[in-house]
Amino acid sequence: MKIKYSVLMLLGSISLTSPLAFAELSFEQELQQGCAKVKSDALLGKKYYDQKQYAKAVQYFEHQAAWTAFCQLNAEDSKTTFNERDVELANNNVGLSYAKLGKPLWARAWFLLTPDSKVSQYNLKQLTLPKVTNKIEGEYVTSAGFGQWSTITVSKTAKTYKIAFDGYYFGLRGLIYGPNMGSFETSMPVSANQAQFRYEDCKIDLKFGQDQYGRKMIVKQNDNTSGCGFGHNVYAGGTYYQVEN
Q: Span of the secretion signal (predicted)?
């Protein structure tokens, strides 16, 4: 599979070892310095992809996906003009790299971030997805925004499945200041395909299934999140696709 669409932008995130981590910069300064790296990092991502160093390409393209969306949302402060097409291409660059790494389930998850895009639809059709089996163990993900993921991990014991949720909410400035977080754990008999989590006034229902894209989990949460113990605006509900098993 070749990248058939131009890599328009890429932005590396700020490392904890970077001088920026120790400087007293305003949000606008950090944002603008980050967004200014788009072009050079885009070239590096494509360079590694063309050299078939896909693991390195993924790192840069994941930065592209996260920061393209982040800079677009903060366009007034970032002084950039990224658009939905840029976000779409960034997500697909990550997906194509994962496909080359032999991780089609992760590739599918990235393509499905923009499912109505013709680019994404084309790349989804090129994927060879593994056959869905009865084994539901593994990691399931749903988008938390800015190229980040909330996860549900399912592991099997002798009599039950253990189910663990780790969720995130990235606010308008979340990629720099960090997300709000939430988690819970529950269990399910090995003979079942549905599970529940109940705590105070929090009600979360989980159901396993599949569709044309493979194994998934549908999670429904009641509107009142105050009793779940999550960080502000963290929400467990959504469609989670299996990416590791």
A: 1-23
